[in-house]
Amino acid sequence: MTDALPYDTHRLCELAGEIIVNVRELSALGWTPATSSNFSRRLDDRHAAITVSGRDKGKLREADIMVVDFDGRAVGSDHRPSAETLLHTQLYRRFPGIGCVLHTHSQVQTVASRLYAGAGHVHLEGYELLKAFSGNTTHETELDLPVLPNTQDMPSLAAQVDALLDRGDMWGYLIDGHGLYAWGRDMADARRHLEAFEFLLGCELELRKLGCA
Ligand SMILES: CSCCC(=O)C(=O)COP(=O)(O)O
Ligand SMILES: [Zn+2]
Predict the structure, then answer these.
(1) Which residue of 38, 58, 118, 134 has the smallest Cβ count within 10 Å?
(2) What sections of 29-132 are H helices per DSSP?
(3) Residue 3: inside a domain, yes or no?
(4) CATH code, 172
């Protein structure tokens, strides 16, 4: 810990390294086109490490990761944090067990968000991969992935997410025409949830193409 900064800089370096490695892999899958997407890790009980706004997520370096407090304000940096910072910090503030938030813009996520915006959710049932979500021990379960309307008004979007979180266990949501948010207790957990949503949404789209859903 330095005198000047109110967080552990060594821990920040560790988390930045982890974000960089994981986000490069997600980018290589085509899930972060055109500088889209944002990623964060809980740093401590007041701060998160998050991607700087507008950076090419496929080419992240340590300088592309900065610190914000849970009100979304930059701490110890002149950079602008992700435009969607509030959607990350609201989760860290409310749930001490959440340690990682991942947001991507894959084609599958975006097409699914458009198709299911009217229904307000994607119903996922009968898939073995539902066991990938923390707490699920059987495929005999179901999950409604919410789809929220897109807006540039982040406080309004965060308020809608907050209302959904009141309902209980939730590991992600879609934003119409935009992409997917997923989270977990650490990077591995959040990434498993993100990948499971991507796979399950892909299955639902495929079933629709085949006229089965
Ligand atoms: C060019 S993508 C539009 C903004 C967006 O949806 C996104 O995920 C990236 O925003 P950021 O400010 O985090 O770079
Ligand atoms: Zn986005």
Answers:
(1) 118
(2) 85-94, 107-115
(3) no
(4) 3.40.225.10
The reported pTM is: 0.97
CA of 85 to the centre of ligand 2 (A): 10
Choose one of 27, 31, 56, 82 to mutate for the ligand 1 pocket test, by most ligand atoms within 8 angstroms of C-beta.
Answer: 82
> Does 2 reside within a domain?
no
Whether 150 is in the pocket of ligand 1, judged by its Cβ within 6 Å, is no
* Residues 178 and 150: beta-carbon distance below 8 Å: yes
Domain coverage including residue 75: 9-209
Is the ipTM above a cut-off of 0.90?
A: yes
Q: What is the count of structural domains for the chain?
A: 1
pLDDT tens-digit series, residues 44-75 = 999 999 999 999 999 999 999 999 999 999 99
Asked whether residue 185 is assigned to any structural domain, the reply reads yes
- Residue whose C-alpha is closest to residue 104's, from 24, 164, 161: 24
Tokens standing for residue 41 = 């890790």
User: Please, which pLDDT band fits residue 2 given cuts at 50, 70 and 90?
Assistant: very low
Nearest CA-CA partner of 194 in 204, 184, 185: 184
Q: Is the CB of 83 under 6 A from ligand 1?
A: yes
Task: Specify if 114 maps to a domain.
Answer: yes
> Tokens 């800089």 correspond to what residue?
9
83 C-alpha to ligand 2 centroid (Å): 8
Q: Which residues carry a binding-site annotation for Zn(2+)?
A: 103, 105
CA 177-20-67 angle, to 5 degrees, is 85
